[in-house]
């Protein structure tokens, strides 16, 4: 298998990694970059646990090649906090008890982060539609939706 | 496997001509990468066309609409120009996979993939769309029905990139609708999908009807018998029932893990009727 050097922008830093030419972004994140907050599960974009932001948009990193990401901005769950402060979504998920086992939460939060970049005041319906491709098998989705709404409100108020 | 990035259509076509049978174009990758991973397909080279400038975007000039091949489902879903009579485009693109898939998957990929269940295909058929194909030496246009030859088979030559879909909505009052049936509401491959366009004259009679169905045959198709039956007549429930029956009769569904053939045929009729009723409602909105 042929490998090559990829130059990626991840969480604000330029990272150079050696990986197989056919490596996915997920492979590179969890492998050489050791950013294991992004989970690997179905590998077919059905479950959403591997969601990251690519140029500000939520995508499933299992279905993007590292080769497709060069010169583009990648943000993972590890890169969401700013200056040591949790992102408003992270705080709201804690406050609302939106987390049970936690496995899907990085994907949930990154999907929501993509939504909130586009819509600052989404209603329940818009949140549910955006989150439909990100599955949680522990809880209902009620608290997750409530947490996203609260985070959106806090972000609008500049908190 | 090697991944090559093309920076122009011409370059992509030339690369394809040089690399031969073991190469594939890669757009959003949401279908191709899964097929490769499942071993349903093998290839030695991927030619990444995803960042060729000018291949994405929606342009509406006068009546003519051009949807660039790299346009994301996400962009179609949000396009203000489609919020009126062309609403079926929004309805179809917003049910393709989940939010993340729609941020990667392209309209060109949906069409070029030639899946019988592709959701944008019936809509584009109902809009009488043509596909623009660009090879190393020339650009040509083909009506969509001539492009789609069978499951995962198209009339594109090896080096041809699908560069855009074009259509011109009919003059006068018209409305469109798209409906799909799946096992759940989100993230579902269609069991049956139906797109329709109805155009009416001042008296409210049907000037033209276009009905297209997917997932009930080897390729999505126009139900021409159903269309002819509506032409020139009133948009009545009875006429719609007849159109539904004709659409079901034109269907040749398979049975698979998602649905039996009998159920698919039943849905072909019912969804056709429902889609036509939606068009009728929408015609009244604009009246
Ligand atoms: C979880 C999930 C859910 C999905 N749900 C749906 C759904 O509900 N409805 C639906 O219709 N589809 C669905 N899909 C399928 C897929 O996302 C769409 O068909 C999508 O539009 C394909 O576009 P792409 O850019 O990703 O294509 P790719 O995967 O990049 O390409 C698909 C095929 O088309 C060829 N190709 C792509 N672009 C061009 C071009 N411009 N010129 C020539 N050849 C080209 C490629 O070589 C390949 O053979 C789903 C996929 C996933 C992963």
Automatic annotation (TrEMBL), chain A:
Keywords, in A-Z order: 2Fe-2S, Iron, Iron-sulfur, Metal-binding, Oxidoreductase
Protein name, entry field: (2Fe-2S)-binding protein
Entry annotated with the keyword Iron: yes
Annotated transmembrane regions: none
InterPro entries in the cross-refs: 2Fe-2S-bd, 2Fe-2S-bd_dom_sf, 2Fe-2S_ferredoxin-like_sf, 2Fe-2S_ferredoxin-type, 2Fe2S_fd_BS, Beta-grasp_dom_sf, Diverse_Oxidoreductases
Domain spans labelled 2Fe-2S ferredoxin-type: 4-80
Gene3D superfamilies reported in the protein's UniProt record: 3.10.20.30, [2Fe-2S]-binding domain (1.10.150.120)
GO MF assignments: 2 iron, 2 sulfur cluster binding; metal ion binding; oxidoreductase activity
Superkingdom per UniProt: Bacteria
From TrEMBL, chain B:
Keyword Protein biosynthesis attributed: no
Signal peptide: none
Residue ranges constituting the FAD-binding PCMH-type domain according to the UniProt record: 1-172
Keyword field contains Metal-binding: no
GO molecular function, one term: FAD binding
SUPFAM superfamilies reported in the protein's UniProt record: CO dehydrogenase flavoprotein C-terminal domain-like (SSF55447), FAD-binding/transporter-associated domain-like (SSF56176)
Pfam families according to UniProt: CO_deh_flav_C, FAD_binding_5
UniProt entry keywords in alphabetical sequence: FAD, Flavoprotein, Oxidoreductase
Record-linked InterPro entries: CO_DH_flav_C, CO_DH_flav_C_dom_sf, Diverse_Substr_Oxidored, FAD-bd_PCMH, FAD-bd_PCMH-like_sf, FAD-bd_PCMH_sub1, FAD-bd_PCMH_sub2, Mopterin_DH_FAD-bd
Entries under PANTHER family matching the protein: XANTHINE DEHYDROGENASE SUBUNIT C-RELATED (PTHR42659)
UniProt name for this protein: Dehydrogenase
